[in-house]
Hints:
Layout: E1 2-11, E2 14-20, H1 22-27, E3 33-37, E4 45-53, E5 58-64, H2 68-75, E6 81-82, E7 84-89, E8 100-106, H3 109-122, E9 126-133, H4 142-148, E10 151-156, E11 163-164, H5 167-176, E12 183-187, H6 190-194
Parallel strand pairs: 8-9, 8-12, 9-10, 10-11
Antiparallel strand pairs: 1-2, 1-6, 2-5, 3-4, 3-7, 4-5
Amino acid sequence: MYKILKKVQLCPIVYLMEVEAPLIARKNKPGQFVVLRVHDKGERIPLTIVNSDEKRGSITLIFQVVGKTTKLLSKLNEGDYIMNIAGPLGKPTEIEHYGTVVLVGGGVGAAEIYPEAKAFKAAGNYVIGIVGARTANLLILENELRQVCDEFYIATDDGSKGHHGFVSDVLKQLIDKGVKIDLVYAVGPTIMMKV
């Protein structure tokens, strides 16, 4: 059983949870994830580890309510327990000094690029962050990403904040300006990844 230490609603459909998981917190690296199960009859779902605090023995997860399990998870509160969490799983992101690294996060993809942005910055890279959402009230981790990025851009589909359009438009503008980019790391909806 994994105790929920903190729960925050980041926007109408996205939640942040800090969960007590000391063994996972000690071994986690950027790019890894956990698989959790809310109760014994529930399905297993993967969630990215956004942050870990080895001293506190906790991991931070961010999820969007899209189905039955994430809806059940969103109903849990501080002090409640998640039945199972397995991790850290997956191959960690290869963090090296590349030069200029652009991290692109669409929607909840911003939660995935945050640990990478911190790690690429710590490795001595010049970090450019680009995040997007359908509308301004669905943007997440804006302040946190601003703190770890050398340059930071926002795009919203409806133009309510930042560039009126898509994150791919902002990346294209940087390329068209002649910005030397050594690595692009992108996470988001399938159509964004395709573009």
